[in-house]
Amino acid sequence: MPQVETPEKCWVGEKEKICYETREEAEMAARLVEVAHGLEVGTLHVYKCEIGKHYHHARRKKKS
Ligand SMILES: [Zn+2]
């Protein structure tokens, strides 16, 4: 199969998540997603995947 230009993904729990190669790349993407969705900066945080050499986004839980 030829390589297609879809982002790499992996399954975390029940969710399929986009993988980012570096923390910097993931942080930049997080800021773009926040702007695109009208979210507060810092809503998304970046963490290293437990099973692969890449990073994912996770949404911070709102304090109540
Ligand atoms: Zn992963």
Describe the structure.
This protein has 64 residues and is of the alpha+beta class. The protein has one domain (9-59). It has 1 helix and 4 strands, in the order ββαββ. It has one helix spanning 23-36, and strands at residues 9-12, 15-18, 44-48, 55-59. A two-stranded antiparallel sheet has the order 1-2. A two-stranded antiparallel ribbon has the order 3-4. The longest helix is centred in the middle third of the chain and has 14 residues, at 23-36. The structure holds zinc ion.
Low-confidence stretches: none
Largest sheet: 2 strands, antiparallel
Helix amount: 10-25%
Mean pLDDT: 84
Strand content: 25-35%
Which assembly state applies to the chains in this document? single chain
- What is the number of strand segments? 4
Provide the spatial order of strands within the biggest beta sheet.
Answer: 1-2
Straight-line N-to-C gap: 48 Å
Hetero groups: zinc ion
- What structural class do helix, strand and pairing data support? alpha+beta
- If helices are DSSP runs of H or I spanning 4 or more residues, what is the number of helices? 1
Total discrete domains: 1
**CA radius of gyration:** 13 Å
How do the SSEs run, as a string of H and E? Answer: EEHEE
- The shape is globular
